[in-house]
């Protein structure tokens, strides 16, 4: 479990670091070094996790160490969500500021933006320090270091569908009702297509939550078209576009140009209320989303 969490956090850290570099979003001085330090430390810790997870069954101290590592990894994951949101918000504010006639308004907006970045930077430094302590403690256990792992070869991820037995799901009513309320709300329709993101570590039930919302009676009655598409990694825009079109028409697409597929999708959904669920999404590349 710990190995999966640490690996997921490391991959997200790498992805968001690239996103930040591409968008030119800066934090306070010294934070880039802390981010690199976190990445390096995670790599070092990953090399001993296979042995640690075997030994935790009999060694309480090892289990306690792994629990602390998981808690810090979850905290880093939460921070990465906050950081990613800040990057997107910064781009939106920058775009809005450039279109305003007043030169004072962008300056006013920059103050809370700067405070927000400093807050994220402070949290990054604190989590980096916590991770360093945990990394040093691993040496006390004399774990076996595994340097032969091959991260480039991974088993194919299972494809998901919208089928679920809702009667077996417990404890998700509040989350389900919150999302359904957002879906059925007419607020913000003029701002374009509303997007609701369900974020979190692997295995916490994001797909299950999406499934029970997708199959809800109110949702079925509200939307004229409902589509479920598995994205997976790496993202393939052409495959996804064809999957959307096939879900709309019920006919496999033999089209070879992405633009032609998008035109057909547009014709199928124009003037209709539709719900599109993109499940198992990993990429944070805004160009793919566009």
Automatic annotation (TrEMBL):
Positions of the NB-ARC domain: 173-286
InterPro entries (UniProt xref): NB-ARC, P-loop_NTPase, Rx_N
Protein name: Disease resistance protein RGA3
Record's keyword terms, sorted: ATP-binding, Nucleotide-binding, Plant defense, Repeat
SUPFAM superfamilies the record matches: P-loop containing nucleoside triphosphate hydrolases
Signal peptide (from-to): none
Domain of life: Eukaryota
Domain Disease resistance N-terminal: 5-98
Pfam family, one: NB-ARC
């Amino acid at each position: 479990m710990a190995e999966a969490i640490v690996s997921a956090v490391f991959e997200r850290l790498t992805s968001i670091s690239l996103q930040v570099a591409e968008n030119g979003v800066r934090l306070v001085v010294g934070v880039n070094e802390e981010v690199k330090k976190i990445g390096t430390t995670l790599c070092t810790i990953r090399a001993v996790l296979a042995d640690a997870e075997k030994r935790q069954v009999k060694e309480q101290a090892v289990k306690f160490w792994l629990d602390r590592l998981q808690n810090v990894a979850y905290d880093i994951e939460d921070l990465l969500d906050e950081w990613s949101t800040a990057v997107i918000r910064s781009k939106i504010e920058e775009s809005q500021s450039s279109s305003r006639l007043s030169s004072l308004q962008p300056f006013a907006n920059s103050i809370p933006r700067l405070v927000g970045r400093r807050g994220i930077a402070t949290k990054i430094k604190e989590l980096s320090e916590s991770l360093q302590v945990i990394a040093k403690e691993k040496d006390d256990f004399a774990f076996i270091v595994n340097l032969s792992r091959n991260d480039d070869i991974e088993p194919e991820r299972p494809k998901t569908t919208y089928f679920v037995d809702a009667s077996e799901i417990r404890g998700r009513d509040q989350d389900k009702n919150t999302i359904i309320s957002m879906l059925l709300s007419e607020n913000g329709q003029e701002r374009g297509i509303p997007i609701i993101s369900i974020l979190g570590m692997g295995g916490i039930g994001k797909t299950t939550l999406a499934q029970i919302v997708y199959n809800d009676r109110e949702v079925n009655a509200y939307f004229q078209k409902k589509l479920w598409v598995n994205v997976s990694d790496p993202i393939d825009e052409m495959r996804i576009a064809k999957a959307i079109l096939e879900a709309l028409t019920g006919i496999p697409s033999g089209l070879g140009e992405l633009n032609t597929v998008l035109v057909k999708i547009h014709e199928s959904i124009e003037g209709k209320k539709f719900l599109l669920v993109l499940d198992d999404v990993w990429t944070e590349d805004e160009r793919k989303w566009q």
